[in-house]
Write a sequence for this structure.
């Protein structure tokens, strides 16, 4: 009797260019019809400052869609056009904006999110098309998709891939990556997997804030209770991570959408801890891996707040990291409301908005000032212009005002 044969693995999918000029011309017309705002463009053209009745509006100089987000959306639309007769799936969300993700779902693009926010690839076939989102995806997920034989459309942001390059180099050199980010965020999970996929003995540790960074710095300086440390960072470090061994050589990286000033402070504190222990910084590495668009939006908000408005509206998806930081920055200076869309502005007395500290949507009453109002507006890098227009028009409507056109 002959031995059973193993079925052959699917042949790798042939690379297909979805960004041909004719495809992109058609795609961009559709994208513009879904997300463009002539009102927002008019305001941009006059410096983002306008007067509507007794409402003085100021838009931050940089807000809304960044290049990486625009590219990801264009590629998703292009995939739908080029592979019109095939099933298409996203690994999670293309970006952190519910309206954009709902629009893609209405175009027949499915979502592979399974239990515990991990991709469920069990139903994929070699005939399917899989879109990698702007955040990227973990190495193991991409390898499994490739092994199935799916056609892959990769929309990973270039800034994210720059971070991957750094943590791979850390891993190759036996340096532990200390990643400033959210351990369960798609981008950080993808970055962490690169810190383990290199040829060297790479490890990683994710710190969310300065308090967690200080715990790491204390351990670097003087050691501590290993088991307690591992309990604190459960789910935020690499398999087999041992603080007694793997905090000797460290390099700082980050989730690209974190607050720049906080990332820089993490870098400074970790470097100081290494120098305090070793007398020199030779066992410390760092690279500037903050996303340019994230920084531009933070800088623009800082500039807007130099002449504080009466209130700020920050628009974007509630699970958007870069938008959350904008809301936190605004709240330090003026009353700030983080809203998803125009429906959150329920009345002149009631507004639904996201509380970034409590991590939940709440309702505030008495939010709109009486009399003349100076209104500041900004939006995260994953927020389309049409939502910004909707929110502005709704605010003016609640004041009894209209915008022509």
């Amino acid at each position: 009797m002959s031995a059973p044969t193993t079925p052959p693995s699917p042949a790798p999918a042939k690379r297909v260019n979805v960004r041909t000029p004719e495809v992109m011309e058609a795609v961009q017309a559709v994208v513009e019809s879904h997300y463009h705002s002539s009102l927002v463009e008019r305001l941009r053209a006059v410096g983002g400052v306008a007067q509507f009745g007794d409402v003085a509006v100021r838009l931050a100089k940089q807000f809304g869609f960044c290049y990486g987000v625009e590219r990801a959306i264009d590629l998703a639309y292009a995939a739908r056009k080029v592979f019109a007769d095939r099933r298409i799936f996203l690994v999670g969300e293309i970006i952190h904006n519910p309206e954009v993700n709902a629009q893609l779902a209405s175009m027949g693009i499915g979502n592979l999110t399974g239990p515990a926010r991990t991709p469920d690839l069990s139903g994929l076939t070699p005939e399917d098309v899989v879109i990698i989102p702007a955040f990227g995806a973990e190495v193991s997920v991409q390898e499994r998709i490739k092994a199935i034989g799916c056609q892959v459309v990769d929309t990973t942001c270039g800034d994210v891939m720059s971070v991957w390059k750094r943590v791979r180099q850390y891993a190759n050199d036996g340096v532990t990556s200390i990643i400033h980010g959210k351990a369960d965020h798609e981008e950080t999970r993808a970055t962490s997997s690169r810190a383990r996929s290199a040829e060297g003995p790479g490890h990683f540790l994710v710190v969310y804030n300065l308090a967690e960074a200080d715990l790491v710095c204390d351990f670097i300086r003087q050691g501590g209770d290993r088991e307690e440390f591992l309990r604190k960072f459960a789910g935020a470090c690499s398999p087999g991570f041992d603080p007694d061994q793997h905090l000797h050589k460290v390099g700082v990286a980050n989730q690209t959408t974190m607050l720049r000033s906080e990332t820089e402070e993490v870098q400074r504190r970790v470097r100081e801890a290494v120098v305090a222990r070793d007398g020199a910084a030779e066992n410390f590495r760092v690279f500037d891996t903050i996303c340019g668009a994230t920084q531009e939006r933070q800088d623009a908000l800082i500039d807007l707040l130099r002449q504080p408005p009466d209130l700020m509206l920050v628009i974007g998806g509630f699970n958007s990291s870069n938008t959350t930081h904008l809301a936190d920055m605004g709240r330090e200076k003026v009353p700030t409301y983080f809203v998803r869309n125009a429906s959150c502005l329920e009345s002149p007395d009631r507004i639904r908005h996201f509380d970034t500290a409590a991590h939940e949507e709440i309702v505030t009453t008495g939010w709109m000032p009486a009399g003349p109002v100076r209104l500041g507006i900004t939006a995260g890098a994953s927020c389309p212009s049409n939502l910004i227009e909707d929110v502005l028009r709704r605010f003016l409507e609640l004041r009894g005002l209209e915008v022509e056109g």
Remarks:
- The domain at 292-398 is CATH 3.40.1010.20 (Cobalt-precorrin-4 Transmethylase; domain 1).
